[in-house]
Design goal:
By secondary structure, the chain is of the alpha/beta class. Helices cover 35% and strands 19% of the residues. It has one domain (23-168): Carbonic anhydrase (Beta-carbonic Anhydrase, Chain A). It has a five-stranded mixed β-sheet with strand order 2-1-3-4-5.
Length: 175
């Protein structure tokens, strides 16, 4: 069976028992998780998320890019419109150990990739996870498009142990 056939068969099994048709459009845990696309660090498994509990944004390294800032700002705006005012919600930026984005910190690899593909991976390169998490959380906290009722914090997931470690604690939300 091909990978595509395997995935379609799994979907058929999922759809037979599907019971989530009445989930609300906003996550019940009022949480957005920004995480790496690495298959070993799926937030649904790592954090035990159920359908409808959180919005998950995945990209290289789980980095806070301009696109992530726009997504979070749009979600905050949408939530405020749907609920008639801003209510707090959390954004968890979750990086993980042994990330492929660590390889992007190699300047030679960056130059070769840019020369061959035109892609600049410098903004998502990770040389130090704690520092990258502090940078990413700070970038979201400083973004003028993200309202002050959004709490942002950073965690590091260890792919060897399964544990999540807090690197950047949440801050008090504005009154």
């Amino acid at each position: 069976m091909s990978n595509v056939e395997t995935l379609l068969e799994r979907n058929r099994a999922f759809a037979r028992d599907y019971t989530n048709a009445d989930l609300p459009p906003l996550p019940t845990l009022r949480t957005v998780v920004v995480a790496c696309g690495d298959a070993r660090s799926d937030p649904a498994h790592v954090l035990g998320l159920q359908p409808g509990e959180a919005i998950v944004i995945r990209n290289n390294g789980g980095r806070v890019t301009p696109a992530v800032i726009e997504e979070v700002a749009a979600l905050a705006f949408l939530a405020a419109k749907m609920e008639g005012g801003g209510r707090p919600f959390d954004v968890v930026v979750m990086h993980h150990t042994q990330c492929g984005a660590e390889r992007f910190a190699d300047l030679g690899l960056q130059r070769a990739l840019r020369a061959q593909t035109g892609v600049d991976v410098a903004p998502v390169a990770i040389a130090d996870h704690d520092e990258s998490l502090r940078d990413d959380v700070g970038r979201l906290r400083r973004a003028s498009a993200v309202p002050d009722y959004v709490s942002v914090f950073g965690w590091l997931y260890d792919v060897q142990t399964g544990w999540v470690r807090e690197v950047v604690a949440p801050v008090e939300l504005a009154a």
